[in-house]
């Protein structure tokens, strides 16, 4: 195993598991965010742990084709296009006039390589044995480790198992993917050049993230979705703000439209819509949801099964129908985010070994790395209205903040939802620069049961974007005060 510092080279399982009937107390399948945290959490509790991963996929999909590459690509786009500075230096400002895919991916490959090293070092430092190969159930307590040719290199037994195999892009059977002009979100990372035009099918998080990146590069983007709007999980005002901003970057939207097929040749693609419309573009990117990677697991041998999208059903403790087998991350479905997957992995390990654990599901933040970014935590106006919860809205615009002017962000906004009677924070919704960082201030206050009065009374550094919280808090409390006057 990995005890000699060479992961996966020794096929003989080590001794020392707490339960002598098994080689390991816990075996984790997958080194993505959920798998990493499950393995390390169990090791910190003093248990014997192994983790199974394909040699070229350390860190899982998140590190190699998903979260890390796409977010690094976004940073490269933001820098090279000068997008963040155009408010200050003019609409034509660019750091590099002719941006190539090599320019964009240079940073991405560096970051991926560093992440591989960091993850491997963390696992080894915590004495987690790394078994190189593909994990597959032989029975509920036994897993085989297969090499790239499907030949079993070794097998191990485990008291508990955590499945954290992640997901892959769902590919509709009606579409012929050619990895050159018709791609999924993973294929975007293999593009040879920046396309002049692109069709993005799917207005969910991944689709809109990539649409905004390519629009910033100057690509003419058309977004198609059969749903009536994009990012339906977001506050409508925030989603509309992003939509307006993307339209300013020449993004076209075709909502309520369904793709009937895509034709491609050496000249590009033509996307055929059910309504009869045809859209020509250099490339088509499909973002039609994700598929759990469970095909190679041989779940039936463990007494488990997956749904049509490859997802495994779990209870509130992330336990599957087989009590000693847990599943976390994308393979269990929504919210399928790296941040939530990490906590799911930690909690699954705690529940397996009866360690006290508490989950703050109601205040988990959502981060969407569009350009500009979106983040929110807590409930939306629609949810509060449906539940008949009395609330008031406080809004701060970045253009009203000195820091907003300094960083050149005149479109950003922060919205607070405040209970009019208890004055507690019910939700925070942010659009603009540093939204995914700023949201954690509101998250912390909500998790601690704090009220809007904390934000009114506290002193925040000036000039900062965090000041938006105080501006929004004052806006909300002033509105509550005005209504109260009529009740006297």
UniProtKB/TrEMBL annotation:
<feature type="binding site">
    <location>
        <position position="330"/>
    </location>
    <ligand>
        <name>FAD</name>
    </ligand>
</feature>
<dbReference type="GO" id="GO:0003957">
    <property type="term" value="F:NAD(P)+ transhydrogenase (Si-specific) activity"/>
</dbReference>
<protein>
    <recommendedName>
        <fullName>NAD(P)(+) transhydrogenase (Si-specific)</fullName>
        <ecNumber>1.6.1.1</ecNumber>
    </recommendedName>
</protein>
<keyword id="KW-0560">Oxidoreductase</keyword>
<feature type="binding site">
    <location>
        <position position="135"/>
    </location>
    <ligand>
        <name>FAD</name>
    </ligand>
</feature>
<dbReference type="Pfam" id="PF07992">
    <property type="entry name" value="Pyr_redox_2"/>
</dbReference>
<keyword id="KW-0547">Nucleotide-binding</keyword>
<feature type="domain" description="Pyridine nucleotide-disulphide oxidoreductase dimerisation">
    <location>
        <begin position="365"/>
        <end position="472"/>
    </location>
</feature>
<dbReference type="GO" id="GO:0005829">
    <property type="term" value="C:cytosol"/>
</dbReference>
<comment type="function">
    <text>Conversion of NADPH, generated by peripheral catabolic pathways, to NADH, which can enter the respiratory chain for energy generation.</text>
</comment>
<feature type="binding site">
    <location>
        <position position="71"/>
    </location>
    <ligand>
        <name>FAD</name>
    </ligand>
</feature>
<dbReference type="GO" id="GO:0050660">
    <property type="term" value="F:flavin adenine dinucleotide binding"/>
</dbReference>
<dbReference type="Pfam" id="PF02852">
    <property type="entry name" value="Pyr_redox_dim"/>
</dbReference>
<dbReference type="InterPro" id="IPR004099">
    <property type="entry name" value="Pyr_nucl-diS_OxRdtase_dimer"/>
</dbReference>
<feature type="binding site">
    <location>
        <begin position="165"/>
        <end position="167"/>
    </location>
    <ligand>
        <name>FAD</name>
    </ligand>
</feature>
<keyword id="KW-0285">Flavoprotein</keyword>
<dbReference type="InterPro" id="IPR023753">
    <property type="entry name" value="FAD/NAD-binding_dom"/>
</dbReference>
<dbReference type="InterPro" id="IPR016156">
    <property type="entry name" value="FAD/NAD-linked_Rdtase_dimer_sf"/>
</dbReference>
<dbReference type="InterPro" id="IPR001100">
    <property type="entry name" value="Pyr_nuc-diS_OxRdtase"/>
</dbReference>
<keyword id="KW-0521">NADP</keyword>
<feature type="domain" description="FAD/NAD(P)-binding">
    <location>
        <begin position="24"/>
        <end position="345"/>
    </location>
</feature>
<feature type="binding site">
    <location>
        <begin position="202"/>
        <end position="209"/>
    </location>
    <ligand>
        <name>NAD(+)</name>
    </ligand>
</feature>
<keyword id="KW-0274">FAD</keyword>
<keyword id="KW-0963">Cytoplasm</keyword>
<dbReference type="GO" id="GO:0004148">
    <property type="term" value="F:dihydrolipoyl dehydrogenase (NADH) activity"/>
</dbReference>
<dbReference type="InterPro" id="IPR050151">
    <property type="entry name" value="Class-I_Pyr_Nuc-Dis_Oxidored"/>
</dbReference>
<dbReference type="GO" id="GO:0006103">
    <property type="term" value="P:2-oxoglutarate metabolic process"/>
</dbReference>
<keyword id="KW-0520">NAD</keyword>
<feature type="binding site">
    <location>
        <position position="289"/>
    </location>
    <ligand>
        <name>NAD(+)</name>
    </ligand>
</feature>
<dbReference type="InterPro" id="IPR036188">
    <property type="entry name" value="FAD/NAD-bd_sf"/>
</dbReference>
<comment type="similarity">
    <text>Belongs to the class-I pyridine nucleotide-disulfide oxidoreductase family.</text>
</comment>
């Amino acid at each position: 195993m990995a005890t000699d510092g060479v992961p996966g080279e020794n096929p003989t399982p080590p001794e020392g598991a707490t339960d002598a009937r098994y080689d390991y107390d816990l075996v984790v399948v997958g080194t993505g965010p959920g798998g990493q945290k499950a393995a390390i959490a169990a090791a910190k509790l003093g248990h014997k742990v192994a983790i199974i991963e394909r040699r070229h996929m350390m860190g899982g999909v998140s590190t190699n084709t998903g979260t890390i590459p796409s977010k690094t690509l976004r940073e490269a786009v933001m820098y090279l296009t000068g997008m963040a500075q155009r408010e200050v230096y003019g609409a034509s400002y660019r750091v590099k006039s002719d941006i190539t895919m090599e320019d964009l991916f240079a940073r991405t490959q560096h970051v991926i390589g560093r992440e591989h090293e960091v993850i491997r070092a963390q696992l080894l430092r915590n004495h987690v044995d790394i078994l190189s190969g593909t994990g597959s159930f032989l029975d509920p307590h036994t897993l085989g480790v297969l090499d790239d040719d499907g030949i079993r290199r070794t097998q191990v037994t485990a008291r508990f198992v955590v499945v954290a195999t992640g997901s892959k892009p769902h590919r509709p059977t009606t579409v012929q993917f050619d990895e050159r002009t018709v791609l999924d979100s993973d294929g975007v990372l293999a593009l040879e050049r920046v396309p002049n035009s692109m069709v993005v099918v799917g207005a969910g998080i991944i689709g809109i993230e990539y649409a905004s990146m390519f629009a910033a590069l100057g690509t003419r983007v058309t977004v198609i979705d059969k749903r009536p709007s994009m990012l339906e999980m977001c506050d409508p005002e925030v989603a509309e703000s992003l939509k307006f901003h993307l339209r300013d970057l020449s993004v076209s939207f075709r909502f309520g439209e369904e793709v009937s097929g895509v034709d491609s040749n050496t000249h590009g693609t033509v996307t055929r819509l059910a309504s009869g419309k045809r859209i020509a573009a250099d490339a088509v990117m499909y973002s039609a949801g994700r598929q759990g990677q469970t095909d190679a697991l041989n779940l039936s041998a463990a007494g488990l099964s997956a749904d049509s999208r490859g997802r495994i059903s779990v209870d509130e403790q992330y336990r599957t129908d087989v009590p000693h087998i847990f599943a976390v991350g994308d393979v269990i479905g929504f919210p399928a985010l790296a941040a939530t997957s990490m906590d799911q992995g930690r909690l699954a390990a705690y529940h397996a070994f009866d360690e006290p654990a508490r989950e703050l599901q109601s205040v988990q933040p959502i981060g969407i790395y569009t350009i500009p970014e979106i983040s929110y935590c807590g409930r939306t106006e629609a949810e509060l209205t449906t539940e008949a919860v009395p609330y008031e809205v406080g809004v701060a615009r970045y253009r009203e903040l000195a820091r907003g002017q300094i960083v050149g962000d005149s479109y950003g906004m922060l919205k607070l939802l405040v209970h009019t009677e208890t004055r507690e924070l019910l939700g925070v919704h942010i659009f603009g620069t540093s939204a995914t960082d700023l949201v954690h201030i509101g998250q912390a206050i909500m998790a601690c049961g704090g009220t809007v009065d904390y934000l009114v009374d506290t002193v925040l550094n000036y000039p900062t974007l965090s000041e938006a919280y105080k501006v929004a808090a004052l806006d909300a409390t002033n509105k509550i005060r005005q209504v109260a006057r009529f009740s006297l």
